[in-house]
Amino acid sequence: MGSIQLQHVNKSFGTHAVIPDASLEIKDGEFVVFVGPSGCGKSTLLRLIAGLEDTTSGQILLDGADMTDAAPAKRQLAMVFQSYALYPHMTVAQNIGFPLKMAGMDKAAIDAKVQDAARVLNLGSYLDRRPRNLSGGQRQRVAIGRAIVREPKAFLFDEPLSNLDAALRVNMRLEISELHQQLKTTMVYVTHDQVEAMTMADRIVVLNAGNVEQFGTPMELYKTPANRFVAGFIGSPKMNFVDGAEAAKYGSASIGVRPEHVQVATDKGAWHGTIGVAEHLGSDTFLHVNVDGLGLMTIRAEGEKQLHHGDSVWLTPDPTRIYRFDKDGRLLPAN
Amino acid sequence: MARAATTTRKVTVTAAAWVVALIIFFPILWTILTSFKSEGDAINISTFFSTPWTIASYFEVQSRSDYFHHFFNSVIISIGSTVLALIIAVPAAWAMAFAPTPKTRDLMMWMLSTKMMPAVGVLVPIYLIFKTLGLLDNVWGLMIILMLINLPIVIWMLYTYFKEIPVDILEAARMDGATLGKELIYVLVPMAVPGIASTMLLNVILAWNEAFWTLNLTAANAAPLTAFIASYSSPEGLFWAKLSAASTLAIAPILVLGWISQKQLVRGLTFGAVK
């Protein structure tokens, strides 16, 4: 079991509220990702759950039991840090076995569990090495091994992949997702990378300035963002926004349309513009278009479009995929 | 031109360094040389190098006073005070490095400021306290007082080392179920071994060389090597050769220890100064 509940959690440093008032309910076995820009409080929220920071007010419940004031060691949670935080003076085997040693388990049982974890994570031949003799990916696996070995109620990941290079990051992303499938243990994962969030999460919490902007499945967030912030944060390339008179035509303060929901033509359309930069990726073409009177827009066209810098184009947004926002940025119901 | 200027500069700096080093080392060298002279020859500078060398002073010193008694007192006091200091300083430095409050910096400055106070200012109260508690001429009393006077430096040095340890690793230990004590024993201390070793070494040297308190608070039983040397400056006059022999015997162990561990010491004293 591993459900996590936050009830009106507040965390302030002096007069500055990093987390003003957060309430969340994470179900047992769920993979929840906290995503948001730098400094939005996502790591603080994770550290509050871990017990590494004290809440200013509010309650944290693990499996229904109030753990707000419990020490990290008592919460039966495991954490994987951004810096891996391996013990440099211990071997891989000692690192993985450390939580079991702290739990007072006997040596033979520790060895057996360490061997199991090492097998799952392909670390069998590195058990006698010290962390400094491992690559970044291997270190990350040791950190995960140390987390899984004691079968915690939930795993907490604090931007675990941000120190890895791009190729390795994709691999580790898959490995962590597979691990979740295997273990079916609750995982809470912090990242600023919305692609990681979309690909890994059962549900995503979008945070902004310490506030939970929206909590939902990746597709809910993509299809019905609660507000302009979520709409802009989820999706890559990000949503295009238009304010002023053009938005007023739709009866809203601003409208948003995703790059993949705009048709490009050379002869006619709703908005005229000139291509600033064309990025040809093979599978897609990203066009950065200076639209007359509306500003810069990014368009995602499937396949290879023979369009280049300086070309004149017409853009037509899919009318069923136009998001309307009120003056406070909240999503208005579709027309 | 530039290369010539650099070479000249290097030679000058090296020569200056040698001169400074020799000036600093000269008293020790002269003490060692004097210890191998007879009393009469020792004070006669003009014939110093032409008169015969002898080890008679060493035999004289050993027969007059028990060197090993004082030597073991010095060992017990310097190691004992260091161990006591570490037992207090490790948790203190942990708290200052990893759980600081807005007043931590002030507290550290205050601690260090006690080192600037002249020791003689508190001699009378401490003497009276020791007398009341029966700690005069007692190795435990000396261990406590030397621990207290060196504690600020020990805490400060350990603090500097601990600051270099990533807090993530200690937090990982907490998440892994380590209590505070286990976090210190299994994670912090092993990671800080080089720092703790050089702090220990420095404290042993400071305690070994400490003369003010060891002379004022001991008579015979607990007297360390400092008292052994001082006993050779008697009312009848100074006996240079014997005084030098006693001094050489007293400084030899710590000189050897310092020589062996100079790398550690330099690292310890300059740690954190340059990133």
Structural overview:
The complex is a heterodimer of chains A (335) and B (275). Chain A is an alpha+beta fold and 335 residues long. Chain A has two domains: 4-230, 3-Layer(aba) Sandwich (Rossmann fold); 238-332, Nucleic acid-binding proteins (OB fold (Dihydrolipoamide Acetyltransferase, E2P)), CATH 2.40.50. Chain A contains nine helices and 19 strands. Chain A has helices at residues 42-50, 92-102, 107-120, 136-148, 166-183, 194-200, 218-223, 228-233, 245-248, and strands at 4-13, 16-26, 31-35, 57-62, 65-66, 77-80, 154-158, 186-191, 203-208, 211-216, 240-243, 254-257, 262-265, 271-280, 284-291, 295-302, 312-317, 323-325, 331-332. In chain A, the strands form four sheets. Chain A has a six-stranded mixed β-sheet with strand order 6-7-8-3-9-10, sandwiched between helices. In chain A, strands 13-17-14-15-16 form a five-stranded antiparallel β-sheet, with no helix packed on it. Chain A has a four-stranded antiparallel β-sheet with strand order 2-1-4-5, covered by helices on one side. In chain A, a hairpin with a 5-residue loop joins β18 (323-325) and β19. In chain A, α2 (92-102) crosses α3 and α2 packs parallel to α4. Chain A is globular and about 75 Å long. The model of chain A has no long low-confidence stretch (mean pLDDT 92). With 275 residues, chain B is mainly α. Chain B has a domain at 66-231: MetI-like fold, CATH 1.10.3720.10. Helix content of chain B is 74%, strand content 1%. Chain B has 14 helices and two strands, in the order ααααααααααααββαα. Chain B has a two-stranded antiparallel sheet with strand order 1-2. In chain B, a hairpin with a 2-residue loop joins β1 and β2. In chain B, α1 packs across α13. Chain B is globular, with a radius of gyration of 23 Å. The model of chain B has no long low-confidence stretch (mean pLDDT 86). The A-B interface holds A 50-52, 71-73, 77-79, 81-83, 85-89, 98-99, 101-103, 146, 150 and B 166, 168-169, 171-179, 182, 186-187, 190-191, 193.
